[in-house]
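anyone else get weird line breaks when pasting these?? whatever heres mine. first is seq + tokens for prot A
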Amino acid sequence: MSATTTAPQRAIARASTVSFAGSAAGAALGIALVIVLGRTLGDAGAGVVLQAIAIFTIALGVARAGMDSAALWILPRLAEETPSALHPTVIRLVAASGVVGTICALVLVSGAFGTGTVSDAVRAIAWFVPIAAMLVTALACTRALGGVLPYTLVWSVGLPAARPAAIAIAVTAGGGLVAASVAWAVPTTLGLIAAIAVLAVGLSRRAPEPRERFVFCGSGLSVRIGRYAAPRVVSESLSQLLIWLDVLIVGAIAGPAAAGVYGAATRIASAGSLVDQAIRVVVAPVFSRLLHQDDRAGLASVFRAATTWLVLFSAPIYLLLAAFAPVALSVVGDAFVHGEAALITLAAGSIVSFLAGNVHSVLLMSGRSGLAAGNKVFAVALDVALLFLFVPHLGIAGAALAWAIACAADALLATLEVRYLLGLRLPLASGLRALGIASATVGVAAIASRWVFGPTWLGLAVAIAVGGGALVVWARAASAVLDLDAFAAHARGRRDSGASS
């Protein structure tokens, strides 16, 4: 592998290491949130709060107004083309998300969601929507300018750590379901303050004030950003619908207790997505730059490495969750263990979707946000149809199956569009190779350990030790094929720098 090809991979490996650590912490803290909800409020109470969080998160998908994705797309290009435009562009991106977020908050407090405890909770947290929208956009700006650490510390660690602690305090103090929902939303304010401060410092270092002030009006940037962001509003809101709508529909059909169990299963399953989050945070601006430079060889190289890492490091987590689903769910409470079938289905569906790699990021960073929005429309429509078809007969397992099919369809559409509409040949087989290795090591160990020890903590520990050890041995032997040399080079660089300091 040439030095020019390895260099961007080393940069991605370095940033991914930071992002992965943050995502791992965020995933663990996300599970901690579900545990706190389940242990303090029970399955029905947890279902109410999770439904309020679902509505908030869906509204946030609209409130962001596509400004976070627009930042990842436009700012790396401006940094090369017109550095003087960075300051005014960042200000307008963050402000736009705040304005749209305020409109969304007005809709939520208007009582459009009827009456009841869920509606009361939604109205109580509605005014945090614009704050969260500006927070997400500000952190996206830091990512676009090369700063992964602020996003990791604030979004992946800070907020997830503060939320379960705040809920525990609120419930201990005698607060009810509405108070627990507000406690979940309050830390967003502190996150925004931190993000704005970090972004201001980063801009002053990356793009100092130019001698000649850039005139934003008439520059055409508003049109470029608007054309890109408009479809992203649809796409982002539909992405959140795809994640959270099943919780709401399960609650409507089967009641809050079922929504609580299913919500817990989805939050535990999201632990496996920490690798995807860590890599996507890093590669999106890299894809944007490589596509802008029309460096197809570089794009294919980075995509191959990212897809290999994604499947190799995430599939073992899902295989363990599938084999020991009752153990994972038992940490929330005994009432949640009967969500085993749903968690197994969610794990299998996630593995299938990840085989496509970061194809969604490639499609978005090519500027074809309209195609991505169309894909999400189809996926959500399919999900809703299947939810009403499956849930009455299969319960929460049917909801998981509907989600898995919709996500697979979304990934397939994006893959076909990148290949035939963009004309990009991406090395998709790299995911299959990584899945084969993960299955032959962790998968086999998990099945054998479950058969010998049953669904117990001992069985899980044995599967992790045996399967994880086998995976490490195989990965080291095939490090060059699996593009792991970049991680090794990064680790050596850290040790060398530490020894010389």
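and prot B, same format (seq, then tokens)
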Amino acid sequence: MNKWRGGVAELKTDLLLLACVKFKGERSVYGAYHLLQGKRSAQTIQDGAFFSALPLFGLLRSLKREEVPALVGELENLGYLKREAELVYPTEAGIRHVQRFLKQHSYIADIDNWVFGKRSRPFWQRLTLVVQTLSHLAVKKSFVPVVQEYEIQQWVKRYTPKNTNARKQLRTQLYEECRALLLEVSEQQALVFVGQLSRPGRVGLTIDQLAERLGLVKIEAELMQLATLHRIFRQLDANPKRFRVLASFLEKPDGDEHATATASARKTAQLLTRAKAVDELARLRQLKTATIEDHLVELALFNLDFPIRDYLSLEMEQEILARSKELNTLKLKTIREALDSQVSYFMIRLALTRKDRSLC
């Protein structure tokens, strides 16, 4: 069987299968769909975190719900998925196919849309407009900005040196930094990246135009661009002095320790200095206790300083995690049935936030 069948629909199918494989048959296909769609719900975020699938968050926003049944049907026909009630189970053939797919599209390993998703657009806009500005000023030519957003234009205007020599030094340093980083990615990725940049005598191409020129489908070109940016971000975080120009294009973090949480969960976080009990927090927020529990689990996922002991003892956490590991499952009902009935789903979810502390 062909390892990758090509085309937009087939790439969507493979990405949906990848998400299903991540969920190990313990979530519905629509859980995978919501993850790829980037639905910022407590359920989607928690599932993504528990199954180490958050890098796929929002990776396929173009996927429509009505497309899912046909994609699942194709995966069943290929022998890659089995359906049982609401759940979908990847078969051994499906797992092998995903392994081949990831080997052929190795750049996907660099994508972490949960961690870097919000960085990509402002960084790219600043970079493309700085490149256009510096290259045109060097030959004293006027130009129409490739980025129309006023805030980005004003940022670039403030950033660009007034002195000719300073601009030349900046242009040289920026070129060297981009060159060093692009040597680490595939030729196609570098072509997608550079091909979008504008300079005197050449307007940057769109993703659609580059995909057609390189014989790719649009989604694949978009994924390559994301992978390149996310790889660059890791280097900038690790070596900001070495790549000082590109690092200066990053937006400064807002200092909010709960920045990755949903807006509603952040509001609950602000009340934790006044109240701890779920019932009291629900009263203050005028929300259901189940919603507050969702918020607390979400906050615990991404903040090691979250006061988890106010809600779960260390002994109970260890017992829950041990049983989850023993049963090789993250199904809340299965774990609860194997434990004392006094253990709540809320306690199990809190314990699972400490399964992989690398999230924090």
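btw re prot B: Residues 168 and 181 are 20 Å apart (CA to CA). Strands lie at 81-84, 87-90.
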